[in-house]
Amino acid sequence: MERALAMDNLHAGAVDRTLTDEQLAAKAREGDTAAMEELYLRYRQPVFRIVYRSTRNIDEAEDIVQDVFLKAFEHLHTFRERSRFSTWLMRIALNLCTDRARMRQRRQELLEREAEHKLAWCHPDAPDPIETAQRNAFHEAFYTALNQLPDHHRQLIILRDLEEMDYEAIAQILGTSVGAVKLRVMRARRAFKAKLEPLLRAIGEIE
Amino acid sequence: MRRLCRELERHFESVESGAGHLPGALRAHLAECAKCQRAWRLHQAYQRALHAARHEPTPACELPWSRVQAQLAARAVSRRPLAWLHPALGWGMAVAVVLAVGAALLPFGAKPLSQGETLAQAHRSEPRVPDTPPKADTVRDAAGAVRSEAQGVALARVDPRAPAARTVAQATPRMRDSARMQPPAPKTPQTDAYAARLRDPEVLARRPIDEVMGAPAFGSASESPFTVASLPLTPFGVNDSATGVEYLPISYGSPSSYREGSNNEAIIGSF
Fold first, then answer.
1. CB under 8 Å to A162, separation ≥6 — which residues?
2. Residue B50: how many CA atoms within 13 Å on its side-chain side?
């Protein structure tokens, strides 16, 4: 991984890093691969984080990240700079996440992914195995409830409560008004709490 | 009380991070209401879960740029032939359409159809008559059947080339236009009078078939009496000596061209 990152940094040296996203997007639109690479390096991890929160699977998240950037670079001519490049990219990421989620049988794969990543949550130098187990149960309950939500609610919980984006950015990503986003976030939280409550009660987090 | 419960619930849903500060009235209500206390505990657990999830270490994305770049290049290569073919296909289709239209308009091997078209035009200028083809079998039948045969023969005389003219008119727009542009055939008083006589059913009913057959051909005074009947089974003419009627094969040419031995299929084959 480090070698890959080092190679990426080496490749990205050809472009001026002080350029804004929109300037880089304009260069990338003309076929400048160095500008594409710089955009990729800037937004690879933020996009991955959002996608990973939705999928909870590293391989699948990386596949989606690749698709996000392929789609973005292939459709750069449609980017009209009415919104920020990052917003546009996040919209693509969320759409691809939704598409991916619709294509698979969600329930069964969720269980498999949870099983796969139980070990990943265990840090090798974790101080207390009991505490780790409790934290894992907490995480498991949280993400189980999150993944039980419909797509539109889950996206809002991820964007607002986990990524802590402001309402205006979310409104731009979702293509709606700030007021509508606030209302939807409230509804999403209500639905999320309804899913979360029995799971937290089961692990003794609440009485 | 219920108003405060709803207000507190709304407060929990709108709290962004942390426990938040409850107004005094709501805090007092929370101390008394068990339902709101449960909601409060759930909200606190929710905030803890959010906090933990936010600070959960996200694995680093190890997807290298080279992989994305390779995919981009592969997609660009796979799209390139299509991008080249797309306009070529468009131009090819346009050229093909132009050639097809040109081929349909060019009169390859077509014979001049002036006489037939003239006759067709003359037929068009006459009152419309039914297109029922005459039946040769009815000649030997009773009087009513003879009448229908006489009408059929009359139709054949009026417009021996009519089927061919219609075929030509339906075949190509250019020929249809040329058929339209042809001036109507000149009528003679003789032919007009004969045509009027033929349209009278009583006259037709009274006249024996021999008289009908012996009448001069309509539209061409120089041509001898001539009958065209549908007899698709043989390409040769059939002489019925009993009735004195000569049956000809299906003919799309003029009587004169048929007699000269010309191949009428050439007209059909030119389309």
1. A53, B50, B53, B54
2. 22
ipTM > 0.95? no
Taken in order B263, B268, B269, B271, the sign of the CA dihedral is positive
Structure tokens at A55: 């999928």
Looking at residue A31, the DSSP 8-state letter turns out to be T
**pLDDT one-digit tens code per residue, A122-177:** 555 545 666 666 667 888 888 889 988 998 999 999 999 899 899 999 999 998 99
Distance CA B172, CA A26 (A): 55
Contact criterion met (CB below 8 Å) for B167 and B120: no
CB atoms within 10 A of CB B44: 15
Whether A15 and A38 have beta carbons less than 8 Å apart is answered as yes
The domains located in chain A, with CATH, are 1-104 (1.10.1740.10), 105-207 (1.10.10.10)
Say if residues A149 and A157 touch (Cβ distance below 8 Å).
Answer: yes
Q: Which has more confidence, A96 or B262? A: A96
Closest partner residue to A8 (CB to CB) among B58, B64, B72 is B64
Interacting residues of B79 by C-beta distance below 8 A, sequence separation 6+: none
Tell me, yes or no, if A164 comes closer than 8 A to chain B by beta carbon.
yes
- List the single residue in B with minimal CA-CA distance to A46: B61
Strands B238-240 and B245-247: antiparallel
Gap between the Cα atoms of A131 and A153, Å rounded: 30
| Residue B125 to residue B184: CA distance in whole angstroms | 8
- Rounded CA gap, B230 and B248, in Å? 8
Distance from CA of B94 to the nearest CA of A (A): 29
B28 touches chain A (CB under 8 A): no
pLDDT given at position A90: 92
Regarding predicted confidence, which is higher, B212 or A90?
A90
